[in-house]
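User: Sequence recovery, please. Input:
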């Protein structure tokens, strides 16, 4: 199967203001976020991307626009990568929300958390994992098992996908850190997913490129060596 780079969007104006943007339209990147986004061209220079996908929200599309343009790739949007629908919490300050009774459920028992007027975190995880797996299968079919592609989406969405790939119950997904403009990398196989990177904000990604002779491998590493 192909390899997917999960990219959290660069820092947005809402991130800087400490508000929960959710699905509010028109939320773009702040100055720090624009700098982070411009750095993606160099960070991903050695990686031959086959596709660039994004959540339909502006902050995700803006994050990858220059990168995709330099590669002559379209930015494909997938509603399965949408931010969590935070319902009545949308647009409110995180400081204010932290005083709500439901906040404790979100932090300690997220599998049971359903946002008032919105969706549940378990619902979000199910549709995001389905979207990533479907797109990964498509890229593999079109470009082969050595292909690498990128999906730009949101922090909680990436945490949900990583929790699934790690075999971690959703109640543990708050233990995963996903910072703005960080990479997390998964390679799916017929047997299991392999999580290759999490919350990577700057290292060389050239090692993600499978060798020309390397077939898709679903064997786990044993004894500290790379699987054959």
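Assistant: Recovered sequence (228 residues):
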């Amino acid at each position: 199967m192909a390899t997917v780079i999960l990219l959290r969007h660069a820092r947005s104006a809402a991130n800087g203001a400490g508000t929960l943007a959710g699905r509010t339209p028109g939320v773009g990147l702040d100055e720090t976020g624009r700098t982070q986004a411009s750095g993606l061209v160099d960070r991903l220079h050695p990686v031959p991307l086959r596709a660039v996908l994004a959540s339909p929200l502006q902050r995700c599309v803006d994050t990858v626009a220059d990168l995709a343009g330099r590669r002559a790739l379209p930015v494909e949007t997938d509603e399965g990568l949408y931010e969590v629908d935070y319902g009545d919490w949308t647009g409110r300050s995180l400081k204010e929300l932290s005083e709500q009774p439901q906040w404790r459920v979100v932090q300690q028992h997220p599998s049971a958390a359903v946002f008032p007027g919105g969706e549940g975190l378990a619902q979000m995880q199910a549709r995001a994992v389905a979207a990533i797996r479907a797109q990964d299968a498509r890229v593999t079919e079109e470009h082969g098992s050595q292909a690498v592609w990128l999906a730009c989406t949101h922090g909680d969405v990436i945490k949900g996908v990583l929790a699934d790939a790690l075999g971690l119950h959703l109640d543990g997904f708050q233990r995963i850190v996903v910072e703005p403009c960080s990479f997390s990398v998964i390679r799916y196989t017929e047997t299991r997913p392999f999580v290759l990177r999490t919350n990577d904000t700057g290292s060389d990604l050239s090692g993600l490129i499978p060798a020309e002779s390397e077939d898709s491998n679903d064997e786990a590493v044993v004894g500290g060596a790379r699987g054959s």
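The radius of gyration is 17 Å.
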